[in-house]
Amino acid sequence: MLTTVNITDDIYYIGVNDRETYLFENLWPLDRGVSYNAYLIDDEQTAVFDTVKNTKTHVFIDKIAGILKDRPLDYLVINHMEPDHSGAIKALQDKYPDLKLVGNTKTFELLEDFYGPLKNYHVIKDGDQLSLGTHTLSFYLTPMVHWPETMMSYESTTGTLFSMDAFGGFGTLDGGIFDDEVNLEFYMDETRRYYSNIVGKYGAMVQKALKKLKDANIPMNIIAPTHGPVWRTDPHCIIDHYDRWSRAETEEGVVIVYGSMYGNTQKMADVIARRLSENGIKNIRIYDASKTHVSYLISDLWRFKGVILGSCAYNTGLFPTMETLVNKLENSQLKDRLLGIFGTASWSGGGVSNLNKFAEKIKWQRVGESVEAKSSPKEKDFQQCIAIADEMAERLIKERA
Ligand SMILES: Cc1cc2nc3c(=O)[nH]c(=O)nc-3n(C[C@H](O)[C@H](O)[C@H](O)COP(=O)(O)O)c2cc1C
Ligand SMILES: [Fe+2]
Ligand SMILES: [Fe+2]
């Protein structure tokens, strides 16, 4: 018996867990895996919402067949074409030859580019409806959350939003499927890591999508995303988080990230952190950019207002792991942070000077003067580090309501 879970009497969870893949999109570490969620509505007409990664095709189709037995599958709603959700479309239509594929014009362009022409296209426009019998679906186009074809589907008798990747996160569903069945702290962190690294760049489009849902004035009882838990107890909690993340709203706290080979730059990070603490800042996180994957750094940078970056010089440039971080930040469109800079160099430098160039490009508010120690930090360098910490703490404390 394969695991299928009733979301309501006739809406089923038919997703699968992936514990094998090391890196999502071959980039993001999956320490605790990922789920590819899919759903089935069993009505006069039957419908599935999204498929799974191609490696999971067989178990996915077996789950559908286990529910439908000899009955046909009438519709596949394709909310998103990224291959972690579109990988089983062709196989599903091979199994159910009359299957109608529901998507918008952009969906079918991508579908044909990826998988060649399939058949039975049912093209919908923003706001269109589709009745399955007792259940009625409405479609909301939400372009560029985070692909051009992304859309959401809403079922009105139960108030269920099939939201594709929006509101979803990393982490397999290990038994618990719903928000009230799992440890939410873990999934919230993993949902923010997913958001900040994959969707965050498109915050303006997320805001548009949230407005569209709000203006539609639809009761939101259940949010069923394509990764992570199903939000049924407090769906507005995850909507609020998305709203805050997409407006780059922050909590009080400072993330210090450094690149250091022999520990000299690291010493400066510890002095800065201690002084922040003496000034009453409680959320302080120090990360070694060579040890912690950039996706976790971005996730914390999305959360906290204060950012202090340090780098030793390395072959006339930034230390490579810090270079990865600043490149990702430049691309991420993350706005409105407070930035302090420190580092070390033994001859002509390259670390601090490049962090300063980054600061000009990203246009965050600068905090204190950047400090560059010669080889190892001396008392005067530590005093400059302390000055950065003092100004950072002062600016953060001033923002307290
Ligand atoms: C492979 C390598 C390349 C370096 N490149 C530079 C450089 O281009 N310019 C510079 O001023 N110092 C350079 N340095 C010196 C270090 O930046 C300097 O010793 C620094 O204090 C090391 O800090 P850490 O102890 O935090 O690793 C280099 C050191 C190494 C090992
Ligand atoms: Fe996606
Ligand atoms: Fe996805």
Automatic annotation (TrEMBL):
<dbReference type="GO" id="GO:0010181">
    <property type="term" value="F:FMN binding"/>
</dbReference>
<dbReference type="Pfam" id="PF19583">
    <property type="entry name" value="ODP"/>
</dbReference>
<dbReference type="Pfam" id="PF00258">
    <property type="entry name" value="Flavodoxin_1"/>
</dbReference>
<dbReference type="InterPro" id="IPR016440">
    <property type="entry name" value="Rubredoxin-O_OxRdtase"/>
</dbReference>
<protein>
    <submittedName>
        <fullName>FprA family A-type flavoprotein</fullName>
    </submittedName>
</protein>
<comment type="similarity">
    <text>In the N-terminal section; belongs to the zinc metallo-hydrolase group 3 family.</text>
</comment>
<dbReference type="InterPro" id="IPR001279">
    <property type="entry name" value="Metallo-B-lactamas"/>
</dbReference>
<dbReference type="InterPro" id="IPR001226">
    <property type="entry name" value="Flavodoxin_CS"/>
</dbReference>
<dbReference type="GO" id="GO:0009055">
    <property type="term" value="F:electron transfer activity"/>
</dbReference>
<dbReference type="GO" id="GO:0046872">
    <property type="term" value="F:metal ion binding"/>
</dbReference>
<dbReference type="GO" id="GO:0016491">
    <property type="term" value="F:oxidoreductase activity"/>
</dbReference>
<dbReference type="InterPro" id="IPR045761">
    <property type="entry name" value="ODP_dom"/>
</dbReference>
<feature type="domain" description="Flavodoxin-like">
    <location>
        <begin position="254"/>
        <end position="393"/>
    </location>
</feature>
<dbReference type="InterPro" id="IPR008254">
    <property type="entry name" value="Flavodoxin/NO_synth"/>
</dbReference>
<dbReference type="InterPro" id="IPR029039">
    <property type="entry name" value="Flavoprotein-like_sf"/>
</dbReference>
<dbReference type="InterPro" id="IPR036866">
    <property type="entry name" value="RibonucZ/Hydroxyglut_hydro"/>
</dbReference>
